[in-house]
Amino acid sequence: MEPWRRVDDPTARAARRDATRPIHGGVIIATACGPGRAARPDRKASHLRPKLATLAAAACLALNVFIVPAAPAAQLNLPALGEAESDSFSLDDERKLGDQIMRQIRPDPAVIDDPVLYDYLLSIWDRLHAAAIKRGNISAEQEEKLAWEPFLVNDSEFNAFALPGGFMGVNLGLIAQAGSRDEMASVIGHEMSHITQRHIARSMVANSHQSMITMAAMLIGLIFSARAHSSDVPAAVITGGQAAMATGQLTFSRQMETEADTFGQDLMTDAGFAPSGMADMFGRLEDVSRLNDSNQYPWLRSHPLTIERIAGARLRARQGLPQDPAQSHITEHSLMRARARALMDTSDVALRRMQSQARLNAPVNDAARLGTLYGGALASVELRDFVSAETMLASANDVMAQHAAAVEQQARDDALVAAGPRQATETAGIPPNAPANVTVKPRVYSLEPEVARDFLLLRVEEAVGHRNSAEIVAAVAALGNVRSRPETMARAEAAIARAAARDPSAGAALQQSVETLQTWVALYPRDVLAWTLLSECAEPLGQKLRAIRAEAEAHAAQGDLIGAIDRFRAGQKLTRTGRVDFVEASIIDSRLRGLLAERRELLKNSRGGDRE
To answer: How far apart are CA 112 and CA 462, in angstroms?
Structure first.
């Protein structure tokens, strides 16, 4: 199921990216950080953030055979998946295993929901996914039964990894270090092809003497060990649904890697990305491998480059159609690279470095300059240096205005060029009698609409951080009536900030966000952040029951059954104390019964998991 799309909506697949990471099912586990508030890392706790490399490795060790610590299935609430000793590993089995893995990964604070960055990831993912369906790479059964869910991981390593069941983790390091959107699409397309070609399942069948329960117990045991920073956990780095273990095993064969390269590059072309992105990415990794990996490129280690892979990518790139430079989204990618860097490393040193780079005003192209200013402004917000943030945002507006003026001038020049050859050469800055090797002025392309929008959203972040109600009102007004997910969440955050600043007129904004979010979660009931913001908007309005229910739903969407049941019981208790909304009370009763039944089913499955 595509991220945060409504399960019963047959048209949701075609909808533009307007929702976020889905949360499926539940597991009896409490989350320390609470639901939904991981949109940005906590600067004070960032050094405590666990690396997901080991967690991801644990999540994919079912693709390898090696000795692991014993982990009783009954204690881990494992699903009764049966044996994998048949000739096939069904899509249902793969999804169940993937769901079990994700239930343990989702509560980790390294899995983040940043609406702006996730929206950018979906702009790539959705196009590749649609291309895979159109090409027939994804069967109707795969589309229905697998999750098709990417998620963001706050890790600086250049990495993306596929998991069983159609899940894919994308490190912020991939966004920060990819030279272009096309390079990023090449990695995601490669990983998606591991899923579409069922490489994970095929590898599991090769290890079919391992029972599914043994595999799942091994995965969860390693995940728990990794959370405890156990020294007994084997060192590993994961990508593409496989682990390169101390045993030296690489479960994806060279044939599978070549297949993923070919299918992935074809997906890129069909989705409108430049096929040269894969060759460029391979070239970048090849240069890194010659110098020093420094443990920052696990994708390179688990996808070892060969002469054949590099040559194949370059050949396919030459055979593909060249991309229109106007469609490259180079400026948007520059902004998102800067955002990923700011969220990856929130230390004062790193943030001040980004500020310094923005202040240099180096003579670079507009795309690079806007990316630097965006990163500097975001770093300033994180450092609560709002004067610097305002200065950098103003500079960015100047750059965008100058760029727009250059585009308009070029349009006028083009009109003159159409009038005749003499005007054409003079307009291009070339005298009629100039030598043939004189270079024509480079073309100037309009900035992507997403660029202005991303700066408007950043201005809301700055105003919210400053807690200045007048600035917040102006920044939110500049967003217009756009109802996509980043804008919806930004308006809610802004209303909450105005209430915290004791703005007497905040009530109307809070009520508007309550109504908008209530509609949103009806369509996307697994959106943890939306439920959490709904709770925080309803609370200051005195809508206690609605706030408690939203908080409970956030816990449920996160997979925290204990927390969800606790909050629903609190809501049920509140309904007995006085006049309440009958409809809301009925929903709470119904949801509580459903979650209690779900918990009983999980316990039943865990007992069934003892049979091997």
So the answer is: 20
